[in-house]
């Protein structure tokens, strides 16, 4: 966490980090709308192409650091867990968008991930939830129920139960991915800051593993099964229009912008600011998705639906706000 004791010099990285997270959340919010311009493409193909191609590119940007994060014992298990979670998320998220709609699918998937993260930390780390967490959960759940009812009344909906189930799976697996990456970065050193994680076979030579390299390793490993599944699907008989040349600009956008650019900016935000601020700013994603779904895709939510999305954002904002520091405490939570 960046200290503010240094005055203006320290505040500039914090502001820059916050701006990076806000831009990342904005480009993530365009994901669902982008899929609207490639009709007929199955949900898992979007996930495979986006996270497969994007994952390989993101891993390439971290270079040898991603390889070191994968082979080192301290970080390898977290990379594997994060990659497995990301593979499931890649398919579940796009299935949620296809069946429940862009606005609802994004809101439920992204909206439940911090709540699932609290449950994962409680179950795995023994971290007790606070009263504020309970209040935030109740507000968010009410909001998601409201927006679900509003969306279910809209014409042309897909399978709403399947869409909501996929969104919940996406929320859980993204929470697991985030938890695994957090532990992986902790094993490598301070999140976002290059640290000496191990010694090489050459005496006196340190192997440096940047925290961002853990993210690159996770995406690179997750890309392998996604690309394999995509190739097999194309081999056994893909739909004639799914991989049409007209769809590749959408695939390229999803791989380069939301995946590579978005997650790279988010890493910058974590390096220069607190996790609570980054989490709060990332909640801008479902807002962007909902607005674009109405303005571009043509979905209709109505006043009730917008009120439900507002409740979700308010609830998650309560969850992300820093708590009071106890004497001698080193964290905000």
- Strand element count: 2
The largest β sheet comes out as: 2 strands, antiparallel
Radius of gyration: 20 Å
Helix/strand order, N-terminal first: HHHHHHHHEEHHHHH
Give the count of helical stretches: 13
Alpha-beta content class: mainly alpha
How many domains? The number is 1
InterPro entries: Diverse_Substrate_Transporter (IPR051258), EamA_dom (IPR000620), EmrE-like (IPR037185)
Subcellular location: Cell membrane
Main location: membrane
Transmembrane segments: 12-31, 43-66, 78-97, 103-124, 131-150, 162-182, 213-238, 250-270, 277-297, 303-321
Structure description:
The chain is mainly α and 333 residues long. It has one domain (10-130, 159-199, 206-302). It has helices at residues 8-28, 31-35, 43-62, 64-71, 73-100, 102-125, 131-152, 160-188, 211-237, 248-272, 275-282, 284-297, 302-320, and strands spanning 195-199, 206-209. The chain has a two-stranded antiparallel ribbon. The longest helix is centred in the middle third of the chain and has 29 residues, at 160-188. The protein is globular. The two termini are 13 Å apart. Mean pLDDT is 75; it is low at 1-10, 190-206 and 325-333.
């Amino acid at each position: 966490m960046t200290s503010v004791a240094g005055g203006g010099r320290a505040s500039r990285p914090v502001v820059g980090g916050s701006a990076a997270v806000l831009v990342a959340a904005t480009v993530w919010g365009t994901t669902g709308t982008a899929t609207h311009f490639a009709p007929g493409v199955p949900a898992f193909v979007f996930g495979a192409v986006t996270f497969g191609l994007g994952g390989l590119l993101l891993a390439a940007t971290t270079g040898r650091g991603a390889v070191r994060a994968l082979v080192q014992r301290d970080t390898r298990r977290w990379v594997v867990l994060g990659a497995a979670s990301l593979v499931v998320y890649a398919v579940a998220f796009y299935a949620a968008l296809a069946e429940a709609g862009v606005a609802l699918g994004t809101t439920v998937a992204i909206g439940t991930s911090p709540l699932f993260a609290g449950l994962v930390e409680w179950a795995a780390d023994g971290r007790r939830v606070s009263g504020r967490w309970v209040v935030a959960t109740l507000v968010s759940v009410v909001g998601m129920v409201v927006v679900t009812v509003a969306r279910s009344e809209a014409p042309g909906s897909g399978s709403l139960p399947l869409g909501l189930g996929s969104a919940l799976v996406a929320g859980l697996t993204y929470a697991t991915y985030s938890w695994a990456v957090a532990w992986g970065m902790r094993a490598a050193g301070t999140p976002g800051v290059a640290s000496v994680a191990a010694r090489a076979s050459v005496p006196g030579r340190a192997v440096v593993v940047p925290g961002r390299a853990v993210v690159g390793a996770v995406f690179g490993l997750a890309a392998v099964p996604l690309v394999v599944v995509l190739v097999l699907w194309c081999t056994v008989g893909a739909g004639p229009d799914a991989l049409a040349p007209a769809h590749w600009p959408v695939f390229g956008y999803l791989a380069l912008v939301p995946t590579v650019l978005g997650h790279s900016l988010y890493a910058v935000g974590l390096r220069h600011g607190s996790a609570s601020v980054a989490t709060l700013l990332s909640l801008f994603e479902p807002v962007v998705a909902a607005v674009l779904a109405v303005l571009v895709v043509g979905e209709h939510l109505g006043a009730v639906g917008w009120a439900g999305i507002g409740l979700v954002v308010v609830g998650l904002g309560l969850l992300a706000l820093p708590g009071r520091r106890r004497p001698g405490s080193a964290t905000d939570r």
